[in-house]
Write a structure and sequence with these properties.
By secondary structure, this protein is α+β, with helices and mostly antiparallel strands. The protein has helices at residues 50-58, 123-150; strands at residues 13-18, 34-38, 76-85, 88-97, 100-110, 115-118. It has one domain (13-150).
Length: 152
Protein backbone atom coordinates (compact mmCIF):
# COMPACT_ATOMS: atom_id res chain seq x y z
CA UNK A 1 0.00 0.00 0.00
CA UNK A 2 1.26 3.48 -0.88
CA UNK A 3 1.05 6.17 1.76
CA UNK A 4 0.18 9.62 0.50
CA UNK A 5 3.10 12.01 0.27
CA UNK A 6 1.80 15.56 -0.29
CA UNK A 7 5.06 16.70 -1.88
CA UNK A 8 5.92 16.03 -5.51
CA UNK A 9 8.75 16.59 -7.96
CA UNK A 10 8.59 17.59 -11.62
CA UNK A 11 8.61 14.41 -13.75
CA UNK A 12 11.09 16.06 -16.15
CA UNK A 13 13.69 16.80 -13.46
CA UNK A 14 16.82 14.62 -13.47
CA UNK A 15 18.51 15.06 -10.05
CA UNK A 16 22.32 15.11 -10.03
CA UNK A 17 23.56 16.28 -6.61
CA UNK A 18 22.07 17.08 -3.22
CA UNK A 19 21.99 20.73 -2.20
CA UNK A 20 23.50 20.51 1.29
CA UNK A 21 22.46 24.04 2.24
CA UNK A 22 18.80 23.09 1.92
CA UNK A 23 18.96 19.57 3.30
CA UNK A 24 16.41 18.96 5.99
CA UNK A 25 15.15 22.55 5.81
CA UNK A 26 11.66 21.56 4.71
CA UNK A 27 9.85 18.47 3.50
CA UNK A 28 11.10 17.93 -0.03
CA UNK A 29 9.65 15.40 -2.51
CA UNK A 30 13.06 13.81 -3.11
CA UNK A 31 13.99 13.97 0.58
CA UNK A 32 16.36 16.91 0.06
CA UNK A 33 16.72 19.68 -2.48
CA UNK A 34 18.73 18.65 -5.53
CA UNK A 35 20.54 20.26 -8.43
CA UNK A 36 20.04 18.62 -11.78
CA UNK A 37 18.83 18.92 -15.32
CA UNK A 38 15.51 19.73 -16.92
CA UNK A 39 14.66 17.13 -19.55
CA UNK A 40 11.33 18.62 -20.62
CA UNK A 41 12.86 18.88 -24.09
CA UNK A 42 14.81 15.63 -24.49
CA UNK A 43 16.68 17.09 -27.47
CA UNK A 44 17.92 20.03 -25.38
CA UNK A 45 18.24 19.21 -21.67
CA UNK A 46 19.33 22.22 -19.64
CA UNK A 47 20.52 23.00 -16.15
CA UNK A 48 17.70 25.08 -14.63
CA UNK A 49 18.34 28.52 -13.23
CA UNK A 50 18.91 28.57 -9.49
CA UNK A 51 15.61 30.41 -8.89
CA UNK A 52 13.71 27.58 -10.63
CA UNK A 53 15.36 24.60 -8.89
CA UNK A 54 13.31 24.60 -5.70
CA UNK A 55 9.87 25.94 -6.73
CA UNK A 56 9.63 24.25 -10.15
CA UNK A 57 11.99 21.26 -10.34
CA UNK A 58 12.18 20.04 -6.74
CA UNK A 59 8.66 20.98 -5.67
CA UNK A 60 7.05 20.11 -8.95
CA UNK A 61 4.91 23.14 -9.59
CA UNK A 62 5.75 22.41 -13.18
CA UNK A 63 2.81 24.09 -14.90
CA UNK A 64 4.39 27.44 -14.00
CA UNK A 65 7.56 26.45 -15.89
CA UNK A 66 7.82 27.79 -19.44
CA UNK A 67 9.62 24.59 -20.52
CA UNK A 68 6.89 22.24 -19.29
CA UNK A 69 5.46 20.42 -22.35
CA UNK A 70 1.78 20.79 -23.13
CA UNK A 71 -0.06 17.51 -23.11
CA UNK A 72 2.56 15.83 -20.92
CA UNK A 73 1.46 12.38 -19.73
CA UNK A 74 2.33 13.32 -16.12
CA UNK A 75 2.91 16.58 -14.29
CA UNK A 76 4.14 15.29 -10.92
CA UNK A 77 5.82 12.30 -9.30
CA UNK A 78 5.66 11.29 -5.64
CA UNK A 79 7.70 8.79 -3.65
CA UNK A 80 7.23 7.13 -0.25
CA UNK A 81 9.07 4.37 1.58
CA UNK A 82 6.48 1.70 2.28
CA UNK A 83 8.73 -0.92 3.87
CA UNK A 84 12.28 -1.14 5.15
CA UNK A 85 13.01 -4.57 6.53
CA UNK A 86 15.06 -7.71 5.94
CA UNK A 87 17.61 -5.75 3.90
CA UNK A 88 15.05 -4.49 1.39
CA UNK A 89 13.65 -0.97 1.00
CA UNK A 90 10.38 -0.78 -0.93
CA UNK A 91 9.52 2.59 -2.43
CA UNK A 92 6.10 3.42 -3.80
CA UNK A 93 5.94 5.86 -6.71
CA UNK A 94 2.96 7.63 -8.25
CA UNK A 95 3.04 9.60 -11.50
CA UNK A 96 0.15 12.06 -11.65
CA UNK A 97 -1.57 14.33 -14.09
CA UNK A 98 -3.92 17.02 -12.78
CA UNK A 99 -3.75 15.45 -9.28
CA UNK A 100 -4.91 12.02 -10.52
CA UNK A 101 -2.67 8.96 -10.74
CA UNK A 102 -1.67 7.84 -14.23
CA UNK A 103 0.96 5.27 -13.20
CA UNK A 104 2.02 3.74 -9.91
CA UNK A 105 4.06 0.89 -8.58
CA UNK A 106 6.88 -0.04 -6.27
CA UNK A 107 10.62 -0.15 -6.63
CA UNK A 108 12.74 -2.39 -4.42
CA UNK A 109 16.30 -1.65 -3.26
CA UNK A 110 18.54 -4.36 -1.79
CA UNK A 111 20.80 -2.91 0.90
CA UNK A 112 23.31 -5.78 0.69
CA UNK A 113 24.05 -5.46 -3.01
CA UNK A 114 23.29 -1.70 -3.09
CA UNK A 115 21.16 -2.16 -6.20
CA UNK A 116 17.53 -1.92 -7.17
CA UNK A 117 16.14 -5.41 -7.71
CA UNK A 118 12.93 -3.87 -9.04
CA UNK A 119 13.60 -0.60 -10.87
CA UNK A 120 11.57 1.80 -12.98
CA UNK A 121 12.04 1.38 -16.76
CA UNK A 122 12.38 5.14 -17.35
CA UNK A 123 15.86 6.46 -16.39
CA UNK A 124 14.55 9.84 -15.13
CA UNK A 125 11.98 8.33 -12.76
CA UNK A 126 14.54 5.76 -11.65
CA UNK A 127 17.09 8.50 -10.93
CA UNK A 128 14.49 10.41 -8.89
CA UNK A 129 13.84 7.23 -6.90
CA UNK A 130 17.59 6.85 -6.31
CA UNK A 131 17.81 10.47 -5.11
CA UNK A 132 14.83 9.92 -2.80
CA UNK A 133 16.42 6.72 -1.46
CA UNK A 134 19.79 8.43 -0.89
CA UNK A 135 18.12 11.16 1.17
CA UNK A 136 16.06 8.57 3.07
CA UNK A 137 19.10 6.44 3.92
CA UNK A 138 21.13 9.48 5.03
CA UNK A 139 18.34 10.49 7.42
CA UNK A 140 17.79 6.96 8.67
CA UNK A 141 21.51 6.38 9.23
CA UNK A 142 21.85 9.75 10.99
CA UNK A 143 18.91 8.94 13.23
CA UNK A 144 20.29 5.47 14.03
CA UNK A 145 23.72 6.96 14.78
CA UNK A 146 22.21 9.68 16.99
CA UNK A 147 20.07 7.12 18.84
CA UNK A 148 23.12 4.92 19.46
CA UNK A 149 25.06 7.88 20.87
CA UNK A 150 22.25 8.82 23.27
CA UNK A 151 21.59 5.24 24.29
CA UNK A 152 18.01 5.25 22.95
Amino acid sequence: MCYYNPEMACPYFYPVARLDWASGATAMPLGDAWTGNCEADPEQPIQPREDALIPLCNLGYAHACPRFPRGAPADAVRFSVIRDQNGLVSICYVLERDHAPVEHGSLVYARGSRTFVAAHPHPRVQRQAEAYLESYLLRKNSLTHAEAQTGS
